[in-house]
Amino acid sequence: MNNDYLNWLKTNTDSANTLHKYAYEITAFFKIYPEFNQDNVNEYLSNRIDQISKSTFNLILSALKSYNRFSKIEIEFPKQKKINKVFKEYYTEEDFRSQVLTHVQKNFSRGRFYCFILKLMFYTGLRAEELITLRKEHINFKEKKILVTNTKSKKDREVFSINDDFFKELEQYTQNKTDNLFDFDYDQLYYLFRKFNEGSGLPFKLHPHLMRTCYAKHCLRKKIDISIIQKLMGHTDIKTTLQYAEPDRKIIQEACEEARKRE
Q1: What does the pLDDT look like over 56-111, one tens digit per residue?
Q2: Which of 61, 144, 231, 243 is deepest in the core (most CB within 10 A)?
Q3: What is the CATH code for 93-261?
Q4: Which CATH architecture describes the domain 3-71?
Q5: H or E segment and range at residue 160
């Protein structure tokens, strides 16, 4: 893969997350095939289709289509797989603290710092690209809110504290900071999550997107209205929010129990 494609991606892709995923998938393709043509694309997809999930297949397909637009080669692609996109796996706050944070604190020399990063994502729902560009000037400690920039929609949004104890921890962390809060990039963040998962024994694989699902479910359990969760997460369409914050059995059971108590 050449730098011309990367430069093309930067000007034709809105999300840094999408950019990195497409670049990764195209690099994987060219490690096997020296040329981008119909036969190689067909063979690559047919070899992968039974080894991966529908969502991963769709990601690879989208990446190949993007390279096709860049290279302007006439190639026919199959249709994307239909999936019911609802994010079901998540950690409750109790499980997040007792399982995830305990694992990271115990098994990594910088466990305390890594736990801080995980808590920041859990309690704010920040995307990976939003996290790595977070600056001290974006945080209003008096009003307990964060101004989120570098968003997927290109529109700034505000995220208010849903955990005062963590916000105090955030304030302590930023005392010696002047500009960016973190000195790692997107790839380093994802590498860190891969290390978290190695031999972890955790029920769900950790990744930045899972933290957003945890945040949405946590807000729902805090009885925050779905339209407000939409604003906090920066979704333009509330249907996207519902993919994250669809009530599951635990949330429904808790709501019914509280309703009985009010009788």
Answers
A1: 899 999 999 999 999 998 899 998 887 666 667 899 999 999 999 999 999 999 99
A2: 61
A3: 1.10.443.10
A4: Orthogonal Bundle (1.10)
A5: strand 157-160
